[in-house]
Amino acid sequence: MHSPPRDQAAIMLWKLVENVKYEDIYEVSPHPRCILDLSLAWLGHPGMEDVQSVEDANNSGMNLLDQSVIKKVPVPPKSVTSLMMNKDGFLGGMSVNTGEVFCSVPGRLSLLSSTSKYKVTVGEVQRRLSPPECLNASLLGGVLRRAKSKNGGRSLRERLEKIGLNLPAGRRKAANVTLLTSLVEGEAVHLARDFGYICETEFPAKAVSEYLNRQHTDPSDLHSRKNMLLATKQLCKEFTDLLAQDRTPIGNSRPSPILEPGIQSCLTHFSLITHGFGAPAICAALTALQNYLTEALKGMDKMFLNNTTTNRHTSGEGPGQRVPRV
User: Fold this and answer.
1) What is the 3-state secondary structure (H, E, C) of 140-203?
2) Least C-beta-crowded within 10 Å: which of 37, 67, 163, 220?
């Protein structure tokens, strides 16, 4: 069993997704070997097979570079408020049960021997139909892994209408397709957690710090470099503290907003466009950076100590010095 992350940035990573319950994103429990620590949702590391791109039938010839660029569609504060679920599990004034499971979707990034199925709630479907993505029937059907058929779009719209969601025929998507478009929120969060685990346990923070410290051994620069490292750690902490306060709905979670509407709407846009992967992934990368900074500071302290000891010996103040006779 792995211990919880010690670094503050790593702790912030888990705070971001702590409201996402394990049973809310999985249809069935995966093999026990895939679970490291359910209390922190430390999941195993399924291998990645070829990722199927979800393409719009009308834009199948779109340049790959264009597909990777996301159009910024600002989400007004009112839209953010409407996306936040109330205590009864309904969106705004609509009688939509956001906690109801709409379907279960097999993961796209798993090996065949460890494929997981992720629950897709009505609330998640509603988020995919709303800004910033505004998926059409073709894309939503691909995300939900529905087989293509002659009347597939119509049957999907009819099913959505029964639960109070409207998907107009012929609508155009608001954001270009990326690889993240193909992921449901459960798998996106799973990917973020696995990435966080790898960053925390496998990134060579000590080796990197030792390599870079060897390039800054001038005694006159040690003090200023240490201050730079300390300032960087503080800036990273401020940044991760902010991301940890993001309360965008993910899966079946119903967090209450604590940030100002302006900044929360910006974080919500980023979370919705990445389906919950973005902020935890950034925190995971900052975990690796924080671990490097910690190791670099330890190395700087050793360099300070060695430099001080060397100066003492050079000036004749070291141990074993003979006291001159008067």
Assistant:
1) HHHHCCCCCCCCHHHHHHHHHHHCCCCCCCCCCCCCCCCHHHHCCHHHHHHHHHHHHHHHHHHC
2) 220
For 127, the enclosing helix (H) or strand (E) is helix 122-129
Of 242, 278, 247, 243, nearest to 80 by C-alpha is: 247
Tens digits of residue pLDDT in 226-262 = 999 999 999 999 999 999 999 999 988 888 999 999 9
Alpha-carbon distance of 186 to 277, in angstroms, equals 9
pLDDT in tens, 68-82: 334 444 445 545 444
Q: According to the model, what pLDDT value does residue 225 have?
A: 94
Q: Which residues pair with 97 in a beta bridge?
A: 90
Would you say the C-alpha torsion 272, 180, 49, 284 has a positive or negative sign? negative
Per-position DSSP letters for 224-271, written without gaps between them: HHHHHHHHHHHHHHHHHHHHTT-----TT--PPP-S-HHHHHHHHHHH
Give me 294's structure tokens: 């910690």
Q: For residue 102, what is the enclosing H or E element?
A: strand 101-106
CA angle 304, 309, 312 (to 5 degrees): 125
63 φ/ψ angles, rounded to the nearest 5 degrees: -60, 140
**101-106 and 42-43 beta bridge pairing:** unpaired
Burial of 176 (0-12, 13-18, 19+ CB in 10 A): middle
What is d(CA 304, CA 300) in angstroms, rounded to the nearest whole number? 6
Residue 210 burial (10 A CB sphere; 0-12, 13-18, 19+): middle
| Domain-wise residue ranges, the chain | 101-177, 183-309
pTM over 0.90: no
